[in-house]
Amino acid sequence: MIRLLLIFASLLRLLPPGSAADPLPCSPRTCGNLSIAYPFWLEEDGQPPCGAPSFQLNCNASQALLSRSMFGSYQVVQVFAENSSFVAVDNNLPLDDGCPKFWFNISLGLGLSPFVVSNKNRELLVLHNCSKQVMPPGFNRTRCANESFYRLGGVYGSHRELAGLPPACSLSVVPVLGFPDGNSYVSSMRQGFLLEWTLSDECPKCEASGGQCRYANAGTGFSCNCSDGVRPDKCGESRK
Ligand SMILES: *[C@@H]1O[C@H](CO)[C@@H](O)[C@H](O)[C@H]1NC(C)=O
Ligand SMILES: *[C@@H]1O[C@H](CO)[C@@H](O)[C@H](O)[C@H]1NC(C)=O
Ligand SMILES: *[C@@H]1O[C@H](CO)[C@@H](O)[C@H](O)[C@H]1NC(C)=O
Ligand SMILES: *[C@@H]1O[C@H](CO)[C@@H](O)[C@H](O)[C@H]1NC(C)=O
Ligand SMILES: *[C@@H]1O[C@H](CO)[C@@H](O)[C@H](O)[C@H]1NC(C)=O
Ligand SMILES: *[C@@H]1O[C@H](CO)[C@@H](O)[C@H](O)[C@H]1NC(C)=O
Ligand SMILES: *[C@@H]1O[C@H](CO)[C@@H](O)[C@H](O)[C@H]1NC(C)=O
Ligand SMILES: *[C@@H]1O[C@H](CO)[C@@H](O)[C@H](O)[C@H]1NC(C)=O
């Protein structure tokens, strides 16, 4: 039985690979400067999904955008597969002038997903809509028409222990990797922030058993396509 499987597997490998102009479905792709590989995947018209929905990307004007993110506007700029993290830029933020119609918390935009904001980030604190005339200590004034104040805080999440934030203002928290040029909070938002993902190891297990990962139902129904049929997890399991 095992030998048969091996012969089958080697036969499959003899099938002609797709030509360079027409890469195999689900093989790595590029978008702008980004190489897209598992667990990320690029959506393509008429092609079945190649991965989980959270990792679905579309390529728009050389930007790789997470299709299922808030308004589809999270751009993936760098992926570190070796430690399951990536740098994302939230295009919902006011990346041109730093003055949004209203401020919001980044964590609200992520919703249900396998992504968490890494504690490798620091936090950009913005105080806005203050009901009293205040210049909170340690903060700088933005140049926005709606008066607001910003400063670079500590490790992402640490504002929860901060005392003395003026209660007369609303607080918004944006993860940033730091302030790259002095104190420009706008360029820090443009630079993006680090997200980490957790992933079930279903696809690596399936591939290790000689199968191909399949994601039916818009990417939610995982199955393993083996030489002798489709299995729920991996190849070589005896059928009941
Ligand atoms: C690609 O990388 C180059 C050099 O690092 C950079 O100047 C350019 O803006 C990048 N393009 C995109 C679309 O990210
Ligand atoms: C692509 O980006 C442009 C502007 O950058 C935007 O107007 C357009 O709606 C985007 N298209 C898709 C399919 O996201
Ligand atoms: C993963 O590695 C990259 C490159 O070394 C690093 O910049 C990033 O902070 C790491 N991510 C985590 C979550 O440690
Ligand atoms: C100021 O904030 C209000 C809502 O609080 C908003 O409608 C208005 O557009 C903002 N003005 C500017 C210049 O961003
Ligand atoms: C952002 O989160 C902080 C706590 O982490 C909360 O105090 C604040 O009200 C939130 N701001 C908005 C605009 O939701
Ligand atoms: C600003 O504060 C007022 C009252 O303090 C509140 O009614 C309003 O919703 C706030 N606006 C924003 C954009 O947070
Ligand atoms: C505020 O601005 C001043 C002058 O530009 C700068 O020296 C200082 O570092 C800034 N403070 C913060 C918290 O960004
Ligand atoms: C399983 O893989 C074979 C060979 O690549 C392919 O012909 C078949 O359509 C696949 N089945 C499913 C359900 O994806």
From TrEMBL:
Membrane topology: Single-pass membrane protein
Record bears the keyword Glycoprotein: yes
Leader sequence residues: 1-20
Domain Wall-associated receptor kinase galacturonan-binding residue range list: 26-89
Predominant subcellular localization, coarse grouping: membrane
Domain Wall-associated receptor kinase C-terminal: 169-229
Any one of the GO CC terms: membrane
Pfam family, one: WAK_assoc
Protein name: Wall-associated receptor kinase C-terminal domain-containing protein
